[in-house]
Design goal:
alpha+beta, Butyryl-CoA Dehydrogenase, subunit A, domain 3, 4-stranded mixed β-sheet, two-stranded antiparallel sheet, rod-shaped
């Protein structure tokens, strides 16, 4: 199921942005990208994705940037003293104006920016926790985006089930006429054969027709299709983030297809075969959409 979400945060010294996107997938596959130095977050990030999602190919990326803050500065006293000593020597040999404070401060290296203090373990843990909170916020957004798509997907699946139900009902009506079709076809074929041999008794003829009708009986397949349709609708009602139904629905589609194949193989009627092929096509369309279900 596709979706995209983004969340931003900071801890005063650094800003960070998580992006999460997903595309269709039969299982959960996570691709994680973090800047160098943040590999320590990978295990927690993968665990957070697995907690929020069950299926899909998920890509998660982290971007970090230091916030520009005014660092404390200090005067390099040793360099200033060296400069004054050199100027004093020069003045002793010539008429040189004394240096101004402004001029000394413009000399490179006189004013030094102090390096930021390294974070302690406690501060680093607090920053990591804040970053993980922002990741979970992004994942909640991704779940919401996928849920919105899920609502649209539910409408599509409902339409497929409605089409499958209509085809199943048409097959039931057509299958009821198979006995007469088989009797008429068998009688016509038998008449050609019996032109040269003695006729079969009515009892033997009835037995042969009954055997053919039994082999062509698709009532069991139609009953199972009816049960599968009911089971699919119950699955859709039970769908929830805490109750993923994708794998169950995928298995149910295989059972749908099995019954449609058997119906076609048992068919003794061109029209019933055509309905069976349409049924298989509708089931395949539904199965393709089920791959997107959580």
């Amino acid at each position: 199921m596709t979706g995209y979400a983004r969340a931003e945060g900071s801890d005063g010294a650094m800003s960070f942005t998580w992006e999460a996107r997903s595309v269709n997938g039969r299982a959960l596959e996570t691709r994680l990208r973090v800047p160098p130095g943040y590999e320590r977050l990978e295990h927690q990030a993968r665990a957070a994705v697995a907690e929020a999602l069950r299926r899909g190919s998920v890509s998660v990326s982290l971007q970090v940037a230091e916030l520009r803050t005014q660092q404390p500065v200090r005067i390099n006293g040793e360099l200033v003293r060296d400069l004054l000593a050199v100027i004093g020597e020069l003045r002793a040999h010539g008429d040189i104006a004394p240096p101004s404070a402004d001029g000394l401060l413009r000399v490179r290296g006189v004013i030094e920016e102090e390096m930021a203090r390294p974070l302690s373990e406690e501060e680093m843990a607090a920053r990591d926790a804040r970053m993980m909170d922002v990741l979970r916020q992004a994942l909640r957004g991704l779940v919401g985006a996928r849920a919105a798509e899920g609502a649209r997907l539910a409408d599509m699946l409902d339409g497929h089930l409605t089409a499958i139900t209509a085809l199943r009902d048409k097959a039931e009506v057509r299958a009821a006429a198979q006995g007469d079709i088989i009797r008429s076809r068998f009688s016509a074929q038998l008449a050609e054969i019996l032109e040269r041999v003695p006729a079969l008794s009515p009892e033997r003829l009835a037995q042969e027709i009954a055997l053919l009708v039994g082999k062509a009986d698709v009532r069991e397949e139609l009953d199972r299709l009816h049960a599968h349709i009911a089971a699919a609708r119950e699955l859709m009602k039970a769908a929830a983030p805490s109750n993923p139904i994708g794998r169950k629905f995928d298995f149910l589609c295989q059972e749908f297809n099995r019954e449609a194949n058997t119906l076609c193989s048992k068919s003794a009627d061109i029209e019933l075969t055509r309905i069976g092929i349409e049924l298989k096509s509708a089931i395949e369309q539904m199965r393709e959409q089920v791959q997107n279900v959580e």
